[in-house]
Specification:
five-stranded antiparallel beta sheet
């Protein structure tokens, strides 16, 4: 009888420890803070090729970093969304320029430092993303979950990005200046290229909620026409912003991102 009682107590203790461990894991991972890095760039920009492209590729290798390459006027990968981004996140006239969350940077050291700063922020909301392609339409589903009650106005952007665009010496206007040996191995490709947005040419998307409550969940779905792009090279990313027109620029404050 004593042996049975001992075994029952041992089982209860093990279950309690398992539940406690599980709670710790969930509390640590549930609201994960990712970093958004916007790179203003161009194929004709020497510095964009010599150090900007290797840097953005290195940063993107982290699971916590979402990168978007926004190409400038006259570039073959230009989209009018660049002008929408610049309205709130200026370049200052030079490239490469990076916006890491709400921090503007123009060199490698400050960009890396800014990434570490944003990673240390408290995640106000968690994002989840899924997608599938039927014929030429990509269907994207986004789930936003807020960590706590907050007075604010939140916007959601979903972008279609493309990887693997040839930027080698035989690619004409796509040739990336400044690459002596290319990235990564004499076969430079333009990656993370911004192609389209969930809301026309609006870089900052659409308002999804005001004054969210704790644990409030919002589901959104979007369709992208993909017939102009190779299916294997395109994917969506989502970015959540908090909009405050009374603040200093950027008015759209970065909250979280997912790829």
């Amino acid at each position: 009888m004593r042996k049975i009682i001992y075994l029952v107590i041992l089982l209860i203790v093990q279950l309690a420890c398992s539940e406690e461990d599980q709670e710790v894991v969930e509390s640590r991972n549930y609201f994960k803070q990712s970093v958004l890095v916007i790179n203003y760039t161009a194929a004709s920009c020497y510095n964009c090729g010599s150090w900007g492209a290797p840097l953005i590729h290195e940063l993107e290798e982290s699971d916590d970093v979402v990168t978007i390459c926004v190409h400038s006027l006259s570039d073959p990968m230009y989209t009018p969304m660049m002008l929408s981004f610049k309205t709130d996140r200026e370049t200052g006239g030079e490239i490469p320029v990076f916006w890491v969350g709400d921090i503007k940077t123009t060199d490698e050291k400050s960009t890396r430092n800014a990434v570490n700063i944003v990673k240390s922020n408290l995640a106000v909301a968690k994002l989840e993303i899924s997608h599938n392609i039927i014929d030429t339409i990509m269907q994207v589903s986004i789930k936003s979950t807020f960590a706590f009650e907050h007075n604010g106005t939140y916007y959601l952007s979903v972008y279609l990005l493309e990887d693997g665009i040839n930027g080698s010496s035989n690619s004409g206007f796509y040739r990336q200046a400044g690459t002596l040996h290319s990235y990564p191995n004499d076969d430079f490709t333009h990656d993370y290229v911004l192609r389209s947005s969930s809301i026309g040419n609006e870089a900052y998307g659409e308002m999804i909620i005001q004054n969210p409550g704790k644990d409030q969940v919002i589901f959104k779905e979007y369709d992208f026409d993909t017939k102009s792009y190779p299916r294997e090279n395109i994917y969506p990313v989502a970015v959540l912003w908090e909009y405050n027109p009374e603040s200093e620029k950027p008015h759209y404050k970065f909250v979280n991102a997912i790829k």
